[in-house]
TrEMBL record:
Residues 283-311 are annotated as: Disordered. It comes from Aegilops tauschii subsp. strangulata (Goatgrass). One of its GO terms (biological process) is regulation of DNA-templated transcription. This is CTLH domain-containing protein. The keyword Repeat applies. The keyword tRNA processing does not apply. Gene3D superfamilies: YVTN repeat-like/Quinoprotein amine dehydrogenase. It comes from the Eukaryota. Signal peptide: none annotated.
Length: 1070
């Protein structure tokens, strides 16, 4: 429906309201789905007209559209059920239970059983969660508050809660203007025309030569009535765009400020009365494995179109909303491979380690800060110390007199905390005297001074990085009882938080539901929480131990833990209930008197570890009893410092002899062995070391080799953000490794690794009970938990890795087989095709940033699918021309670039169903598209072997060039060329069957190029960056997979097809 037609509906709604057609008004609201009348909805809820409430809601959303919608319908049906029980109408209650509430059983069977058990109670208020249930009127009012917040936050109601600001009787005015215009066109207009019908155009019958009076003083429809306009349907008037704010930190917040996006309770469904609307705001990011049907992408913006009309995609803020309470497995039988029993490395630091941190991407890089102010950088894989720096004030003259005086009085300085930034390009050091130093990291042994900040009076006790307002910041706390926030580029101070009455010991920045906040702990045991404003703390709670306490979230951000030691040596490790600001569970196993402040860490959303009693103690997060202890062959201090790497495969532990032991589980041992196999000749010096990326070469096979998901023996195939050349800009960690020139470094002796046998790798074949066609496209989802494929019969297939004991993260791995997944409806995502011959079509698709949508085409119309329900949201752009490549704009999901087989690129706005621009410059079909959000350009490639760069502001072509095809190389008639941006968003990978090249996109000049040396070498069929852009994986027509260093395009590893493909499969990859 066009925008004018939509506006006409609003005019009709206003007219019907003015004419008092009340039932018709609400029927049109519901059928059109354009305006949700909140006042009418409130009245129906308060009056208990449940059938009408659900019917009216049905015009805007369905139960399974998204999690907000499901929660809305659940609350309504729960209230209806409780009212039947309150009236002792058992038969009615059973009917509601079976007809209305049973639909939720598939998502939370335990909750459904508990609701069913209410039938056995004489008074359901005997249930503890319902003990505060009042009378029917008050219960409906409380529920209505919750429903309004859910509706306001539900993306499906966006732009539907505000009626347009119209003048009274706008439709009558337009008709009057039209009739005046018609009258002025009469050949013989009468001075006082008699208008008797609107069904035909007006025309004066008898000529008298007089002109019609002006509409200003003689309206043809008589005087226009002036009743109250449609927006003022009730006392509430039009719905206000600024809803009442909800406490952003749930029960932790005591005086929340106004926020633009309400943090509503879209979380766990339960049947307790929501006396505190903010108390249901705990939303784990990762759904429970017990609820497999709910654990695919958050459907915050999901919308299934009721009719073929333009559908807008809301911004995917990836709110961590979860419908059901998360349950965790209680089994405590763990494979020994899970535990870090093996001492894989012993490193001699030279002074006592005080703080350690592994690089977030290159996970064998370990930072160490010591008790004498030294910092060290180790490559655990090669056992080499890449960097050592002694403490030194960079610019003493710029420091405060207090710091200069303190250093003169006592020059000894200790590192209190050392930590990497989230992308690993910076790291920060907090010292025991006033200052923090920020270094930039450029790979290998290259660290450079970035910022020195005289941050606090006294010691700086902790440092952290955060991204408030999408800007990297540094957070510090110190002995001066303050927390400060600094801009990470310039060091400008942005906030100072005051309110603690003792030195601040630690900070823990986090975000939830698009709200950024900071927890802080002080030496008096107080915990406070702060938003990035100047309104003071929102929390004032006591930490167990009342002294040195640190806080940390689980890897998925869903669970909050703290560990503290009192002045008497009593240690407390607890999990917090964020909704209530109370301790949820306390872990047992500490000695009565710890001999130091206990440090702790979390790993893999599963385990907690703490250093105590000369050992490392391990707990299952879901059981308070001590699970196991690790002695690490002895030599540990009473309270050793500990730190896991991001994947949980390595654990660094401090030792009494001023060293570090690196413990590894089975995956970590395999990782280190692989790095040893790839290492340089032992004769090279430390200064010549090049940092190794974490990604094992074998992980390429899953992305490059069609249906074979081959991975390393470590089993970790897909990190949290995956890169693939599918036209989709991925939500990757913003790592910016250098594109360096290594070609002239002759001192490095590379060993080419060849994988020739099945014993050298671990591979999986993806099971498929649906398709009979070949795979045309294959990618990892952005979250790294699934593989999406598009078959040549236009059907999409989705394999998801289960979350279980063997795979606690739920990420892609070769240790556990993924399962072919479908929604409960059993429908398939099937593209539109032409002439029933999809095998001959060009297949393409692109995933949106948080995996909620997939845009796809197979020669016919382009389809937009909801990835959680598999429903088709809309189709558009019927051929010809047909789409050959798709890419989402990185800043706006509603803007997509569509490459066509007629060589054009169409920039299309999904929300308004309009082509914004058509780009011409290629001479053959488009085969690749990639956006850069740093350069603000779109790079395109075509079958004409040409690359073009387009400015995304005005869509003008900035530059173009043709690839240089090596002489003597046979090529196909259609030269498919693909493009993909490096994570620095400035360099671009260009792939052609004759070559792989890295281009500087700003100049469109090649930086590196790799053509196969032999003219008889098989053509290159595909290539892609690893998730950290350190490696390039390439597949060839004979099914060989090669791994290259992205910085030099040096071949590092070759995987032969016999190592991962069964003998009965043809060695052929497209």
């Amino acid at each position: 429906m066009s925008s004018l037609s939509r506006e006409l509906v609003f005019l009709i709604l206003q007219f019907l309201d003015e004419e008092k057609f009340k039932e018709t008004v609400h029927k049109l609201e519901q059928e059109s789905g354009f305006y949700f009348n909140m006042k009418y909805f409130e009245d129906e809820v308060i009056n208990g007209n449940w059938d009408e409430v659900e019917r009216y809601l049905g015009g805007f959303t369905k139960v399974d559209d998204n999690r907000y919608s499901m929660k809305i319908f659940f609350e309504i049906r729960k209230q209806k059920y409780l009212e039947a029980l309150d009236k002792h109408d058992r038969s009615k209650a059973v009917e509601i239970l079976v007809k209305d509430l049973k639909v939720f059983a598939s998502f939370n069977e335990e909750l459904f059983k508990e609701i069913t058990q209410l039938l056995t109670l004489e008074n359901f208020r005997e249930n503890e969660q319902l003990s505060k249930y009042g009378d029917t009127k008050s219960a409906r009012a409380i529920m209505l508050v919750e429903l309004k917040k859910l509706i306001e936050a539900n993306p499906l109601f966006r732009d539907k809660l505000q009626f347009p600001n119209l003048k009274s009787s706008r439709l009558r005015t337009l008709i009057n203007q039209s009739l005046n215009w018609q009258h002025q066109l009469c050949k013989n207009p009468r001075p006082n025309p008699d208008i008797k019908t609107l069904f035909v155009d007006h025309s004066c019958g008898q000529p008298n030569g007089a002109r019609a009076p002006s509409p200003a003083n003689n309206p043809l429809l008589g005087s226009i009535p002036k009743p109250g306009g449609f927006p003022q349907l009730g006392a509430h008037g039009p719905f206000q765009p600024a809803p009442t704010p909800v406490a952003p930190l749930a029960g932790w917040m005591s005086n929340p400020p106004a926020v633009t996006h309400p943090a509503v309770s879209g979380g766990a469904i339960g049947f307790g009365t929501p006396t505190n609307p903010a108390a249901m705001l705990k939303h784990p990011r990762t759904p429970s494995a017990a609820n497999p049907s709910m654990d695919y992408p958050s459907g915050d913006s999901d919308h299934v179109s009721k009719r073929p009309r333009p559908v807008g995609l809301s911004e995917e803020v990836n709110l961590p909303v979860n419908m059901m309470p998360v349950t965790y497995p209680q089994s405590h039988s763990y494979p020994q491979d899970d535990f870090h029993k093996a001492v894989a490395r012993t490193l001699s630091q030279g002074s006592a380690p005080m703080s350690m941190d592994f690089h977030p991407v290159q996970q064998t890089l370990l930072l160490v800060g010591t008790n004498v102010g030294d910092i060290g950088l180790w490559d655990v894989g090669t056992k080499e110390r890449l960097v050592v720096r002694n403490f030194k004030v960079w610019e003493l003259g710029k420091c405060s007199m207090a710091l200069q005086a303190a250093l003169v009085k006592d020059p000894t300085v200790s590192v209190n905390r050392i930590i990497w930034s989230p992308d690993g390009t910076l790291f920060g050091v907090a010292y025991s005297r006033h200052i923090v130093q920020i270094y930039s990291y450029h790979g290998g042994d290259d660290i450079r001074q970035h910022l020195e900040i005289d941050a606090h009076v006294g010691g700086v006790n902790d440092i952290a990085f955060a991204h408030p307002n999408k800007q990297l910041c540094i957070i510090t706390c110190g002995d001066d009882k303050t927390i400060k926030v600094w801009e990470a580029t310039s060091g400008t101070k942005q906030f100072t938080f005051e309110g603690h009455e003792a030195p601040v010991y630690s900070v823990c920045p986090h975000y939830k539901e698009n709200i950024q906040f900071i927890f802080s702990t002080a030496l008096d045991g107080k915990i406070k929480a702060w938003l990035y404003d100047n309104l003071g703390s929102r929390v004032d709670y006591d930490a167990p131990g009342h002294w040195c306490t640190t806080m940390a979230y689980s890897a998925d951000g869903s669970r909050l833990f703290s560990c503290g030691t009192s002045k008497d040596g009593e240690s407390h490790l607890v999990e917090w209930n964020e909704s209530e600001g109370a301790v949820k569970r306390t872990y047992q196993g500490f000695r009565k008197r710890s001999m130091g402040v206990v440090q702790f860490d979390t790993t893999r959303n599963r385990f907690l570890a703490a250093g105590d009693e000369f050992v490392i103690k391990i707990w299952d997060m879901d059981n308070t009893s001590l699970l196991t202890t690790i002695e690490a062959d002895g030599g540990l201090p009473a309270s050793p410092r500990i730190r896991f790497n991001k994947e949980g495969t390595l654990l660094a532990v401090s030792t009494v002899d001023n060293g570090i032991k690196v413990l590894a589980n089975a995956d970590g041992v395999r990782l280190l062995r692989t790095l040893e196999n790839r290492s340089f000749d032992a004769s090279r010096s430390a200064s010549e070391t090049v940092t190794k990326p974490l990604i094992n070469p074998l992980t390429a096979a899953a992305a490059a080799a069609a249906a074979a998901a081959a991975a390393t023996s470590s089993g970790t195939a897909a990190p949290s953000s995956i890169t693939a050349m599918n036209g989709d800009n991925r939500s990757m960690v913003d790592v910016k490794p250098r594109i360096a020139d290594e070609s002239m470094d002759k001192s490095k002796v590379w060993k080419l690794m060849e994988i020739t046998d099945t014993a050298q790798c671990r591979s999986l074949k993806l099971g498929d009970s649906i398709r009979t066609a070949k795979i045309s496209r294959l990618i990892y989802t952005n979250s790294g938990v699934a593989i999406l494929a598009l078959a040549s019969n236009a059907v999409h297939l989705l394999w998801k890795w289960p979350r279980n004991e063997r795979n606690s993260t739920g990420k892609a791995t070769a240790s556990v087989s993924p399962q072919l997944w479908q929604p409960p409806s059993g429908i398939l995502m099937t593209n539109d095709t032409i002439d029933n011959s999809p095998d001959e079509a060009v297949h393409c698709f692109a995933l949106s940033k948080n995996d909620s949508y997939v845009m796809s085409a197979s020669g016919g119309k382009i389809s937009l699918f909801n990835m959680m329900t598999f429903k088709t949201m809309t189709t558009f752009m019927p051929p010809p021309p047909a789409a050959t490549f798709l890419a989402f704009h990185p800043q706006d999901n509603n803007i997509i670039a569509i490459g066509m087989d007629d060589s054009t690129i169409q920039i299309y706005n999904v929300r308004i169903d309009e082509v914004k621009s058509k780009l011409r410059g290629h001479s053959k079909k488009i085969t690749g598209l990639a956006f850069s959000n740093v350069l603000n350009v779109l790079v395109s490639s075509g079958a004409d072997a040409q690359i073009c760069v387009w400015n995304t502001d005005g869509w003008e072509r900035q530059r173009s060039r043709f690839l240089q095809i090596p002489s003597g190389r046979p090529t196909s008639n259609i030269l498919d060329t693909r493009v993909q941006f490096h994570q620095d968003q400035q360099h671009c990978l260009v792939v052609h069957e004759t070559q792989i090249a890295i281009y500087d996109a700003s100049k469109l000049e090649p930086v590196k190029q790799w053509p196969p040396r032999e003219t008889s070498a098989p053509p290159i069929t595909h290539a892609t960056f690893s998730c950290d852009s350190q490696l390039i994986y390439a597949s060839f027509l004979d099914a060989t997979v090669c791994i290259f260093s992205a910085s030099s395009l040096r071949l590092q590893c070759r995987i032969l097809p016999a190592s991962y493909l069964p003998q009965n499969i043809r060695y052929f990859i497209r």
